[in-house]
Design brief:
The chain is mainly alpha-helical. Among the domains are: about 90 residues, no CATH class; about 90 residues, Serine Threonine Protein Phosphatase 5, Tetratricopeptide repeat. The longest helix has about 80 residues. Keywords: Membrane, TPR repeat, Transmembrane, Transmembrane helix. It comes from Roseivirga ehrenbergii (strain DSM 102268 / JCM 13514 / KCTC 12282 / NCIMB 14502 / KMM 6017).
């Protein structure tokens, strides 16, 4: 999500230039928007007004985002961040905005580690902002930064192969959102935990996470649609094509009504893969070409280039000319992307965090069982506790003298045991 900057200032000439830039952009006159913004930057630069240079550069970055010129946008947002750090004006909100957009651009080009780093800095800035200006943050709805930014950071960490780091954040969000009754954050966290399970081929546990989101009517339809699609992926990987098709179909129906073209593209991509695995090449081609017609911004989505490769393979048995055309498209788009994606699978961090999820799930189940037993047997337990307390009290009086003789020896033994326990833990951590 992009966040256009709020224009403030007392200099009418400058404000008019920036305002005209946005008007031109709204009228789809990009060259004029760029021209007005450049004039605004020149105006501020001549007067040494660093903060208004920040606003102008941020506006240039925003124009680049809107026109999908991400290279120019990244340079302008980077300049804006540099000028903001030099400015006497402390504007934490705009710093968050700039960092978020830098993260979005890095993610577009599959540089997930840098995207995560920008989101982390944005989150740290947001914490400072909320701490210094709690009333303002609450009034403007900016407390959501404290939930959204860690979530976005976790997604980028997951994409970069840092499953352990991503998982730790998602587990915290799971516990926190469940405690607060925040179904939106809970659904997002569980969906991402399911994806980690899916990546680790733990399909049944992944289905549990996805099912909670997919079949919870309190959750927004677009989020439920994503979970339904992921549920379809899990069934497809298990070889249950009938169930996979059912969930893909339901996901697509929801997305056509509630989700973006990009989100629809992703479902059609997976739906086509299912048809291809079933041997229905014609049906697969139909789904994939519909995906291309639905979402026409593949140039900014390197992860989606795989559709060209799949279309090439599907067309090999039907139309060699089209197969060659899609093969050329795939080759021309994939080279740089392959370097970035290399070594992101079979990551030991994934295995480690998968075990951690299992431990959390096991702990939650054990606590539920213990609570059920306590509820069932608490009257009897209370009587036993009172009786034992009476007996132990008199026994304690009898043993007091004997215990005094042994106490120093036991303290030394306990200290030695604790020291050994700490050493053992250090060795295990290594």
């Amino acid at each position: 999500m992009l966040f256009p900057l709020t224009l403030t200032g007392q200099v009418k000439e400058y404000n008019d230039l920036v305002g005209k830039a946005f008007d031109a952009l709204n009228n789809e006159n990009t060259p004029e928007a760029i021209d007005f913004t450049q004039k605004a930057f020149t105006w501020a630069s001549k007067r040494g007004d660093t903060y208004r240079m920040v606003i102008a550069k941020s506006t240039m970055g925003y124009i680049g985002m809107q026109t999908r010129d991400y290279e120019a946008s990244y340079l302008n947002y980077s300049d804006a961040l540099t000028y903001l750090q030099k400015s006497d004006t402390v504007d934490l909100y705009n710093k968050i905005d700039i960092l978020q957009n830098l993260a979005i651009i890095k993610s577009r080009y599959s540089d997930y580690r840098m995207a995560a780093a920008f989101y982390k800095e944005a989150y740290e800035t947001a914490r400072t902002y909320v701490r210094r200006y709690p009333e303002l943050a609450k009034e403007n709805g900016d407390l959501s930064f404290l939930i959204d930014l860690p979530y976005f950071m976790a997604m980028q960490m997951k994409n970069s192969g840092d499953y352990q780091g991503a998982g730790d954040i998602l587990l915290d969000l799971w516990e926190e959102s469940e405690y607060k009754g925040d179904t939106v954050s809970l659904a997002r966290a569980l969906n991402q935990l399911g994806i980690i399970k899916l990546t680790n081929k733990d399909y049944l546990e992944a289905q549990n996470f996805f099912s909670y989101v997919a079949f919870n009517e309190a959750i927004e339809p677009d989020t439920r649609a994503m979970a339904l699609q992921n549920l379809g992926v899990a069934y497809m990987e298990l070889g249950n094509f009938e169930k996979a098709e059912k969930w893909y179909s339901e996901a697509l129906a929801l997305k056509l009504e509630h989700s973006s073209a990009r989100s629809q593209f992703i479902t059609l991509l997976d739906y086509g893969e299912l048809e291809f695995k079933k041997g229905n090449n014609t049906a697969a081609i139909e789904k994939w070409e519909l995906a291309l017609n639905t979402f026409d911004k593949l140039d900014a989505e390197p992860d989606f280039f795989v559709i060209y490769d799949w279309l090439q393979k599907a067309y090999l048995q039907i139309d060699i000319t089209k197969a060659a055309r899609y093969g050329d498209l795939y080759t021309s788009n994939i080279r740089n992307w392959m370097d970035i994606q290399r070594n992101q699978k079979d990551n030991p961090s994934l295995q480690a965090f998968n075990t951690k999820i299992d431990q959390v799930l096991s702990s939650r189940r054990e606590k539920a069982e213990q609570l059920a037993l306590i509820k069932e047997y608490w009257p009897l337990g209370l009587g036993v506790v009172l009786l034992l307390t009476f007996i132990l009290y008199h026994l304690q009086l009898f043993l007091t003298k004997q215990r005094r003789v042994l106490i120093e020896k036991r303290v030394r033994e306990v200290r030695a045991a604790k020291a050994q326990e700490i050493l053992d833990k250090i060795r295990r951590d290594l």
